[in-house]
Amino acid sequence: MILGCIADDFTGATDLASNLVLAGMRVVQTIGIPAKAVPDADAVVIALKSRTAPVGEAVEASLQAARWLKEHGAQRIYFKVCSTFDSTPQGNIGPVAEALADFLEAPFVPVTPAFPANGRTVFQGHLFVGQQLLSDSSMRHHPLTPMTESNLVTVLQDQLQNRQAGLIAHHDVSRGPAALQQRAAHLVTQGQTMGIVDTVDQASLAVLASTIAAQNWPLMVAGSGLALSLPAALGCEVHAHAQSLPEVHGAAAIVSGSCSAMTNAQVAAFIAAGGEAFPIDALRLGDGHSLVEEALTWAAPRLGHQPVLVYATASPETVRTVQQAMGEMAAGERVEQALSQIAVGLVGLGVRRLVVAGGETSGACVKALGTETLRIGPQIDPGVPWCHAEPAGLKIALKSGNFGSTDFFHKAFDIP
Ligand SMILES: Nc1ncnc2c1ncn2[C@@H]1O[C@H](COP(=O)(O)OP(=O)(O)O)[C@@H](O)[C@H]1O
Ligand SMILES: O=C(O)[C@@H](O)C(=O)COP(=O)(O)O
């Protein structure tokens, strides 16, 4: 195994796995730490649901995953975080990165969430979403991980307990791997053993990938953009691109718990195009109504080739009202629980092609469906592949909140 990967959520894991596959690696993605041996692979991606977990839990789960990966031969560890650096105010990214760095005895850890193909870039340590600073983007309204600071050196430093964070700016990255390495060595002399790396395009990520390979750095903390450049830098033999998945026939459905701006637009576009949709009123989940039964009764006669949508997706104002009534984390968990029960119910009714929108929502649904591994298939949009969920035998796509084009919910099912 060339690369052992730990992803802090499930959509992030398929995003990473998809980019590694596009870059030519043979990848196996597992849900949690595998219970049995995995087939030969250049990379194993372990999907955790740790992004919003309490810090201690996230650290422990990530260390367990790292131990498993090292025991199974991983030469390097890739800690996959969100391209918008999503983390709660308590902040898991820093403590997990620190614990992994200590475990791997990493002299220096490069950190970058950049994914230029989806408009996420880092300049002077600041994260941009398209042309906006992270803190001006819709991510400031995320229900669980509102991001209100764009300076990633600040965000990361606030989360670290024992290490210091510094910056490797574009000036050094643009001059190539030797300059990047020199700047990293300088940071280390200042006691800064973690560095946010400016990455304004895929070329910057290729420079970082070459430096990681040349310096033998054992740990990287990154979004999925780096994965497009890393396999070549590590000298991985290129294998056939998208894997073909087993054919799956059966009804189509979408379950959406993401409240991100793009998912809101995708839900609106699906309904505007005549798609059948059932809204989950999160406030009613609190007062003993069996919305799960209602949703399944609604869906049953409508299931077929055309997808039906069940969604809790709502505007920031609605989410705020729900959170005031239930509490932030409790609201999130209650909606996730209802949607995962609906996903299981839909599969019971014959759904075999399923899109789930939202990282936390995907984690809840994929776990409830008893998924152990995901085979990565063709990409629908950057960062969102179709997968084959095993052992259930489902065709499933886990869509990150802000990924995908507006017509994603129809387009996905047009891809064979
Ligand atoms: N109407 C709602 N009110 C409050 N919380 C909601 C509502 N709909 C969904 N949620 C919660 O918001 C969170 C969205 O996170 P996630 O699924 O990771 O989406 P994204 O990929 O957009 O970040 C989940 O915990 C989900 O249960
Ligand atoms: O890096 C990314 O943006 C995604 O892979 C990801 O992790 C997104 O998380 P969600 O928006 O919570 O799905």
UniProtKB/TrEMBL annotation:
Reactions performed catalytically: 3-dehydro-L-erythronate + ATP = 3-dehydro-4-O-phospho-L-erythronate + ADP + H(+); 3-dehydro-D-erythronate + ATP = 3-dehydro-4-O-phospho-D-erythronate + ADP + H(+)
Span of domain Four-carbon acid sugar kinase N-terminal: 3-229
Alphabetical list of SUPFAM superfamilies matching this protein: YgbK-like (SSF142764)
Alphabetized UniProt keyword annotations: ATP-binding, Carbohydrate metabolism, Kinase, Nucleotide-binding, Transferase
Signal peptide: none
EC number assigned by the record: 2.7.1.217
Family in the record: Belongs to the four-carbon acid sugar kinase family.
The protein's name: 3-oxo-tetronate kinase
Source organism of the structure: Hydrogenophaga crassostreae
